[in-house]
């Protein structure tokens, strides 16, 4: 008998003797007898038993009832009456009336349901949920409304605070180790709350699988170490997050991994690198940080795949709403979920989305290194994603309108924003993005001191790192990210003393406009 403290979505194969598998999709053709729940489906002769210990263990997530019963070989469509134990349990599930253990034949153990928990009719497959036609609706309901692995009638997803998951007896542990049963086993390997986040992001990205981690840098570094072999070669771009560059330039070489760095638009340089090296991976941001350069994801993917190289796009600045990197041909997409996905400047997280094969390969290393996301942080991301589409719409609109105003202002020397015709990849951005993001970088017509005066004159935004939250944030990259370098070394990366990166929050546009214009008037 398989025992699991958290009931994962276990779906049965119609093949005799097949092992149960975890899945985020409902298989309507599977020949099974099941509870009237989207959570539990088992094959004939597969016995599921959750004890009163399991009930106590799950009490902190609002699980008021846990049912154990055995299923006979008879399925509902076989014309043979269902087993008494299954009948009794279904009756309890549909009526929400406590069941006397004596009603269950065969001596199966039952933990009686308390008030408030119901097992409703099986919910539809996500792909069949035509009533969710927009990313906004998916961000709100994916992983929850369409069925989740936590049995509760609470609207919000409970936080499962546990470091480990127990087995009722050694035989159950052996079943798990030999892959006849499922369990997270240990908190570093998974958590019901974090699974909801992963399913939401997978739904938005159109990915088979998503893995959530403790930070965006954790996601990038684990991905690179898992997919690039010792002595391998990668291609990346000149403009990128500085910590990513440091990892590529100083840590990967210790593993014999080398890199070719190209301009984001230089496809000729990419083709040369692919010819001269056995490239394992192309990895960059699109848009990039801080100049918001855009990479032709479709073309890059075609070129790399011809040579057997993988493509991973960091879509943090774009968000899953403005850009679908996987649909454009990328193999993987990573995000710093700290930014737009969380959206409230109150949580650190990162995620990797792609095929089940690639994400599973990365997950193996992740389980070794750690970097697991705390379930309380996962809940904050779930909460934040409910308003993702509303926030991004507002930030897209504000940033584009302000970029146009800044570009026309006499005290602004240059504006970097893919939504402007002056941007070098504007036409590309129009093809592969539906919105241009909430960050605008621009150069003040002046030196370091004059730029500091402008930043200090602003009243709404916080001077801080990060971006993508509800609150507007401003910084001078020369000071915030590159102050340890000399001015001449900063220039090598294109970072001038007068560069400003402005992340627009969800404040009223007119308030932000007035604040920026008054700050410009002070210099």
UniProtKB/TrEMBL annotation:
EC id: 2.5.1.160
SUPFAM superfamilies recorded: PLP-dependent transferases
Name used for this protein in its record: plant cystathionine gamma-synthase
GO MF terms held by the record: cystathionine gamma-synthase activity; pyridoxal phosphate binding
Biological process terms in GO annotation: methionine biosynthetic process; transsulfuration
Reaction equation(s) it catalyzes: O-phospho-L-homoserine + L-cysteine = L,L-cystathionine + phosphate; O-succinyl-L-homoserine + L-cysteine = L,L-cystathionine + succinate + H(+)
Cellular compartments per GO CC: chloroplast
Family statement drawn from the similarity comment of this UniProt entry: Belongs to the trans-sulfuration enzymes family.
PANTHER family for this protein: CYSTATHIONINE GAMMA-SYNTHASE, CYSTATHIONINE GAMMA-SYNTHASE 1, CHLOROPLASTIC-RELATED
């Amino acid at each position: 008998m398989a025992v699991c403290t958290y009931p994962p979505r276990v779906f049965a194969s119609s093949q005799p003797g097949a092992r149960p598998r975890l899945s985020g999709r409902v298989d309507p053709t599977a020949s099974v007898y099941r509870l009237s729940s989207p959570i539990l489906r088992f094959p004939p002769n597969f016995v599921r038993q959750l004890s009163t210990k399991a009930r106590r263990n799950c009490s902190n997530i609002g699980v008021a009832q846990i049912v154990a019963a055995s299923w006979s070989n008879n399925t509902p469509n076989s014309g043979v009456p269902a087993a008494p134990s299954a009948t009794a349990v279904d009756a309890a599930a549909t009526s929400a009336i406590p069941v006397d253990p004596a009603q269950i034949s065969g001596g199966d153990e039952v933990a009686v349901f308390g008030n408030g928990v119901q097992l409703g009719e099986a919910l539809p497959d996500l792909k069949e949920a035509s009533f969710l036609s927009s990313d906004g609706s998916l961000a709100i309901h994916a992983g929850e409304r369409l069925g989740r692995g936590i049995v509760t009638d609470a609207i919000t997803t409970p936080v499962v605070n546990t470091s480990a998951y127990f087995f009722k007896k050694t035989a159950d542990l052996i079943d798990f180790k030999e892959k006849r049963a499922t369990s997270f086993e240990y908190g570093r390997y998974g958590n019901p709350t974090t699974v909801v986040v992963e399913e939401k992001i997978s739904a938005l990205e159109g990915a088979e699988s998503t893995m959530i981690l403790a930070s965006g840098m954790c996601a990038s570094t684990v991905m690179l170490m898992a997919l690039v072999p010792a002595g391998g070669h990668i291609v990346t771009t000149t403009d990128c997050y500085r910590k990513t560059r440091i990892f590529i330039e100083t840590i990967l070489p210790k593993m014999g991994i080398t890199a070719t760095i190209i301009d984001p638009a230089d496809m000729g340089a990419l083709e040369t690198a692919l010819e001269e090296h056995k490239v394992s991976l192309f990895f960059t941001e699109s848009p990039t940080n801080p100049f918001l350069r855009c990479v032709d994801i479709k073309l890059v993917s075609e070129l790399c795949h011809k040579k057997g190289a993988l493509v991973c796009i960091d879509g943090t600045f774009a968000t899953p709403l403005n850009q679908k990197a996987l649909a454009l041909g990328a193999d993987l997409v990573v995000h710093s979920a700290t930014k737009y996905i969380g959206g409230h400047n109150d949580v650190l997280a990162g995620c990797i989305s792609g095929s089940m094969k690639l994400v599973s390969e990365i997950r193996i290393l992740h389980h070794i290194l750690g970097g697991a996301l705390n379930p309380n942080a996962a809940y904050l991301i779930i909460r934040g994603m409910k308003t993702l589409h509303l926030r991004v719409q507002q930030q897209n609109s504000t940033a584009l309108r302000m970029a146009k105003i800044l570009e026309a202002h006499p005290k602004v020397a240059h504006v970097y924003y893919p939504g402007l015709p002056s941007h070098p990849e504007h036409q590309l951005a129009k093809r592969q993005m539906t919105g241009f993001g909430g960050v605008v970088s621009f150069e003040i017509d002046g030196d370091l001191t004059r730029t500091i005066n402008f930043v200090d004159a602003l009243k709404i935004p916080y001077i801080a790192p990060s971006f993508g939250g509800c609150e507007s944030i401003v910084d001078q990259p020369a000071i915030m990210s590159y102050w340890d370098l000399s001015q001449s070394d900063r220039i090598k990366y294109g970072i001038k003393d007068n560069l400003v990166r402005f992340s627009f929050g969800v404040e009223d546009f007119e308030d932000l406009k007035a604040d920026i214009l008054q700050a410009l008037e002070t210099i």
